[in-house]
Write a structure and sequence with these properties.
globular, 41% helix, 15 helices, 448 residues, alpha/beta, 8-stranded parallel beta barrel
């Protein structure tokens, strides 16, 4: 409907992650993270780029908060750098690190912006990695301690907590393909990490319920709900295998207190076991207030008996972002409805959605025209409206990202921001998409 307005309590936000924007990696007592180590290892990132300076948000956060205010967003999703709080992963906390996030939260609240705080966005303290990282069960308990400390310090001023961002990437990209830190390629390591990540989520969640329980708490996943390449039965079977591996392995423990049995059987045939101990699934399946979903694209899957997993990705000729990702806005609606059907229509927030394009400044250096990003956002937002109209339990949307930043293994080559960052001068220049999003928020919210 043309006159549809988002509810007045709908959350309009934007998002970032600590290692991608903060810089100041050697300042005020911060310890090393696995991404410091990984990015400083030759050949791991484009051009050898690192997050040493990034957007220098650590020093320039007042300017960034002012830009969020001017955007009209009513929430800001950011992550805590674990090694900035516990330089050795555990033990004595670093007060200067805590003070930074306290100042940031106060500045946000002063400007009417709700803090949406992610506890883990991939920057594990290197000292914990040195003792096994997420392959080591003890890391889940160290995370619970870190989470508890942050709850103590910030829960009185937070709006919502996200325990983990995209454990799939931490487990599979970090430990199976080795594309992300810590750069391991070992199936058993990947699935041990997967289980311990979910255990860490459950431990932190359980403690929050018992001691604090005053704000919203959930987890953010980047699940995939692919389309079959054709109507053949084999294609549908291939989609199910993909769903088991990349989606149900994360959602079933949270909502059904178990891992998908078909996929566990596949793993056992390759001698890979999940290190599940008595009581783990009860801990992992604690009641979340919401599910965060990060949506960028939708895969198309075809059966392929020559593949170890029995499927392959198919290029259907969709337009693509600079990441090479298919632009399929209607896939967002399909994913939201699939989750609703399969898992009892949970409360959902889109915690990331956005696109990288090869942005450049105008000749005078004061503007950045990004029509492709505006088109991408407009089309995805239209499907959010439809999702609400069709009964999806959707409560908010966080655009990725506030500002161009360190895009992990891609370094500074890929720009996702609605604010252009000149990585030489660190100047911030709002793109046309910034003004599009500002106007969209203002014009599509029910203020009645």
């Amino acid at each position: 409907m043309q006159d549809f307005k988002f509810p007045k309590d709908f959350i309009w936000g934007t998002a970032t992650a600590s290692y991608q924007i903060e810089g100041a990696v050697n300042e005020d007592g911060r310890g090393l993270s696995i991404w410091d180590t990984f990015s400083h290892t030759s050949g791991k990132t484009a051009h050898g780029d690192t997050g040493d300076i990034a957007c220098d948000h650590y020093h320039r956060y007042p300017e960034d908060v002012k830009l969020i205010k001017e955007l009209g967003a009513n929430a800001y999703r950011f992550s805590i750098s674990w090694p900035r709080i516990f330089p050795k992963g555990a033990g004595k906390p670093n007060s200067k690190g805590t003070d930074f996030y306290s100042r940031l939260v106060d500045d946000l609240l002063e400007k009417g912006i709700k803090p949406a705080i992610t506890l883990y966005h991939w920057d594990l303290p290197q000292t914990l990695e040195d003792t096994g990282g997420w392959r080591n069960r003890d890391t889940a308990y160290r995370f619970a301690d870190f989470a508890d400390y942050m709850f103590q310090k910030l829960d009185d001023r937070a709006h919502m907590w996200i325990t983990l961002n995209e454990p799939l990437c931490s487990a599979y990209l970090g430990h199976l393909s080795g594309e992300h830190a810590p750069g391991i390629r070992n199936p058993q390591a990947a699935y041990s990490a997967l289980h311990h990540l979910l255990l860490a989520h459950g431990l932190a969640l359980g403690n929050y319920r018992e001691v604090y329980n005053s704000n919203l708490i959930g987890i953010t996943l980047n699940i995939s709900t692919p389309q079959p390449a054709s109507e053949k039965a084999a294609e549908a079977d291939a989609v199910e295998v993909f769903l088991d591996q990349n989606t149900r392995m994360f959602l079933d423990p949270l909502f059904k207190k178990k891992y998908p049995e078909r996929y566990l059987e596949r793993l056992m045939k390759t001698n890979v076991l999940l290190p599940v101990e008595n009581g783990d699934m009860e801990i992992i399946s604690g009641n979340v207030d919401f599910l965060g979903l990060n949506y960028y694209f939708e895969f198309t899957i075809s059966a392929d008996e020559s593949s170890p997993d029995g499927y392959r990705l198919v290029d259907k000729g969709f337009p693509k972002t600079a990441m090479g990702w298919d632009i399929v806005p209607e896939g967002l609606l399909r994913q939201l409805k699939w989750v609703g059907r399969e898992y009892g229509n949970p409360v959902v927030y889109i915690t990331e959605n956005g696109a990288a394009f090869p942005d450049s400044l105008s000749e005078n250096g004061t503007e950045c025209h990004d029509p492709d990003r505006i088109d991408y956002l407009a089309r995805h937002l239209q499907y959010l409206k439809q999702a609400l109209e069709e009964g999806v339990n959707l409560k908010g949307y966080f655009l990725w990202s506030l500002i161009d930043n360190f895009e992990w293994a891609y370094g500074y080559d890929k720009r996702f921001g609605i604010i252009y960052c000149d990585f030489k001068t660190l100047e911030r220049i709002p793109k046309d998409s910034y003004y599009f999003y500002r106007d969209y928020i203002a014009g599509n919210t029910d203020h009645g």
